[in-house]
Specification:
With about 375 residues, the chain is α+β, with helices and mostly antiparallel strands. It has 11 helices and 6 strands.
């Protein structure tokens, strides 16, 4: 009994244990991915997005939340009269909760198997960079012979190298060439082969303290919105527009996450200014969704198709922009930061999520300063 209401203590304890593992693994898994080539960091974010997309597909297949309005009659024996009223009837799910959680359990088992294979198979070891990549990342000069063909790291498109002949100090120094090129071109053998005596010197600008503060502040804010504030009010945002709009917002929003991460893999963003602009746009779409939630059960354009379209579009753009910014900043931290940068990244992600959840909780559950009303699909009438 909590605050006069019965709750499942066992469920709370299990939920807390699951959340604890989820939050701590987010902090430690990012530095772990630093052991692999940079493309694995982006695929990590893609998998993180799919982890939300797949359960939403299961929920759609289950058919949860489908309702219909039924005209119910009630006969009064005393007055010999019959009254009629509308009731909301929710359809039964196509399969039980046990099946739904069983599917989630299978997902978790596959994740555990993947993690095991990532650590204990030769195929995965082929893509490891380990300490060589860390030393290289810190700006040391390494010979190409240090990286055999089977273990050559493939840094991200952010990385660049300067190709210099090892005999550049000799008399033919002016005839030697220097080029800026990507690791990808070198790996493909477009500039030199394994017999060359060239040295690869990475030319990067390390992040300054101001850069860390700037990027970590962005991560703090957008994760506070995406993981803390907006999920708490998502039903107030989308459900007033109907069940179809609600399911589209949830499904397409979760789909936008891995799509944005995939785009970031091939079109990364390295400009500090553009990352800031995209973050402001994401906050703008998030603010629009928050305005819709405060107007529930009769938000803007409630009786128009355009209202539902704008809501779904805002949800997709918000999730997509946030995911794109998160991946871009993580890649910048990996290529231009220290070996502890991704640890700070993960910690700030969780700090922002916790702050957002703590800020919105009293408004949704306690305070009357902001009214969040769910309404009824059959009884709520908006002018």
């Amino acid at each position: 009994m909590i605050a006069g209401t019965e709750h499942s203590l066992a469920l709370f304890c299990l939920w807390y244990a699951l959340a604890f593992v989820d939050c701590t693994s987010s902090v430690t898994f990012l530095p772990f991915m630093n052991r692999f080539q940079s493309m694995f960091l982006t695929t990590y974010f893609i998998g993180e997005g799919l982890s939300g997309f797949m359960p939403s597909i299961f929920a759609l297949a289950q058919g949860v939340g489908n309702s219909k309005c039924v005209n119910v009659s009630q006969f009064n024996d005393t007055a010999n009269t019959t009254t009629y009223h509308i009731e909301t009837h929710y359809s039964s799910p196509r399969f039980s909760e046990a099946v739904f959680f069983g599917l989630l359990c299978i997902m978790m088992a596959l994740c555990g198997l993947s993690f095991f294979l990532l650590n204990h198979t030769k195929v995965a070891n082929h893509f490891r960079t380990e300490s060589k990549d860390i030393n290289y990342k810190q700006g040391s000069i390494a010979s190409s012979s240090q990286y055999p063909a089977s273990s050559t790291p493939t840094p991200s498109p952010y990385d660049s190298v300067e190709l210099m002949d090892s005999d550049s100090s000799g008399p033919n120094h002016n005839s030697e060439f220097q080029k800026q090129t990507s690791f990808k071109a070198i790996d493909q053998g477009e500039l030199c082969d394994a017999s060359d005596t060239a040295l690869f010197k990475k030319t990067i600008n390390p992040l300054l303290r101001a850069d860390y503060i700037y990027f970590l502040f962005i991560i703090f804010v957008i994760n506070g919105l995406s993981n803390g504030v907006l999920p708490s009010v998502s039903s107030y945002t989308s459900l007033p527009y109907g069940e179809l709009a609600y399911h589209l917002a949830a499904t397409l929003g979760n789909m936008a996450n891995p799509v944005a991460c995939l785009i970031a893999m091939f079109l990364p963003m390295i400009s500090h200014v553009y990352i800031g602009i995209l973050s402001v746009l994401a906050c703008g779409f998030g603010s629009y969704l928050m305005i819709l939630a405060t107007g529930s059960p009769c938000p803007l354009l409630i009786n128009q198709t355009s209202g539902a379209v704008l809501m779904v579009l805002a949800q997709c753009l918000f999730v997509g922009l946030v995911s794109y910014v998160k991946v871009s900043i993580a890649q910048i931290f990996r290529t231009r930061g220290t070996i502890h940068s991704l640890v700070w990244y993960g910690a700030v992600v969780q700090a922002g999520s916790m702050t957002g959840a703590l800020l919105i909780f009293p408004f949704v559950n306690v305070s009357h300063l902001i009214s969040f009303t769910s309404g009824d699909p059959c009884l709520t009438v908006c002018a």
